[in-house]
């Protein structure tokens, strides 16, 4: 390949590298990726055009990347803050398309669940089980449709629910290894359950009372499951669509990105578990308190996982 053709082919990519290197908040994984690509270009240039200006330029650029990597290692003590402030939002921005797919699947599954219950009353028992349905019917008769949330000690319930939610999020993520199909099916079933649940309370004429109580913790909990599914799709799609990487390298990159998202959900599951265990049981609290908790939860999830990543990208921090 002629030197001019080599430069023309890669110039725009090198310019992008320079911009990325100048970003103080660039992820360590991205720096390592840049260094590998640049050393490949530099090795080629040294072989084909050992004394050219392009070779000197690439050598200088590779040195900058190397210094940036070394500087990043010296700042490892700030990694905890960087993880939550930069890495998780960056992973979310990179998975925004997968998040949209996850939301659509969950919404469609919920709609199917609702329509199915509306047309076949036996469907609710098929999905939720006879035990749960019978218990809820008894709670409705006693005047507390959501009485299930006050059936255990607060601390015991908090530990059990939080652990279960975290395990569910890891399951929906890990199932992505089956080419995203496992994650899609798991998410679909969860959406089906939610739709069935909502229509069941509607048919019992208690939806207006039950839904605000459920969404006290459900706003964060259900959003987190959809986000965990996006992480699973990110990993699964990295196997299906490796782009310019080998399938193994692409899978590793997708798995790391998805795992960051799932790890980032842990504090939110703790918050949801706390609300469900200590607050949801107070079903008859004033409506303004319910609206405030649901509203703040929705703003928290929307901002951290959608708006904030977009802002970081807009201002060149990721």
Which descriptors would you attach to this protein?
318 residues, elongated, mainly alpha, 2 domains
Describe the structure in your own words:
There is one protein chain. The protein is mainly alpha-helical. It has twelve helices and no strands.
The tally of helices reads: 12
Structural class: mainly alpha
Please state the CA-atom Rg, rounded to the nearest Å.
25 Å
Quote the beta fraction: under 5%
Series of secondary-structure elements, N-terminal to C-terminal:
HHHHHHHHHHHH
Low-confidence stretches: none
Number of domains: 2
Helix content: over 70%
- How far the N terminus sits from the C terminus, by CA atoms, comes to 34 Å
Shape: elongated
